[in-house]
Specification:
Elements lengths: L12 H16 L2 E2 L4 E2 L12 E2 L4 E2 L4 E2 L4 E3 L12 E2 L4 E2 L4 E3 L3 E2 L4 E2 L4 E2 L7 E4 L4 E5 L1
Parallel strand pairs: 1-3, 2-4, 3-6, 4-7, 5-8, 6-9, 7-10, 8-11, 9-12, 11-13
Antiparallel strand pairs: 13-14
């Protein structure tokens, strides 16, 4: 399933983490939460504008293109839930994946799609709102 970042007990983690997060925001204009769980071989061909929320789970061998958002549903009064991206999924430019949805193994999310439904393994989701158009 991958290697996940664990919380450190090092006292300077906050200072160094804030410095690195600031550099990431300034250089690439992306915001990847340190609380998110990211597996091995995450591929970011163009890391500009990527936002990954604190509860997102990304498994191994996932590719994410520019301006992608993985966030919560944002409903007040409800528990925040974040997406889970399974092994080998590809998310194209401008896609938004919100809520506690699961993107299946090897699935493809089309450019500029807004996905708030579960996507089965090895299928393609496109559109606003996202819909499954066909298996890969």
């Amino acid at each position: 399933m991958g290697v996940y970042i664990k919380r450190s007990k090092i006292p300077f983690r906050g200072v160094m983490g804030n410095f690195l997060r600031y550099r990431m925001l300034v250089k690439w204009n992306c915001d990847i939460s340190y609380s998110s769980k990211i597996g091995r071989n995450l591929h970011l061909p163009h890391p500009i504008g990527i936002v990954i929320g604190e509860g997102a789970v990304i498994h191994d061998d996932v590719t994410i293109f520019q301006n992608v958002t993985l966030g919560s549903h944002g409903k007040s009064g409800e528990k925040l839930t974040y997406p889970t991206i399974e092994r080998g999924a590809t998310i194209y430019a401008g896609a938004i994946i919100i809520g506690g949805v699961s993107i299946g193994e090897g699935a493809v999310i089309g450019a500029n799609s807004v996905v708030n439904i579960d996507v089965p393994p090895f299928s393609v989701a496109v559109g606003i709102p996202g819909r499954i158009v066909s298996p890969k």
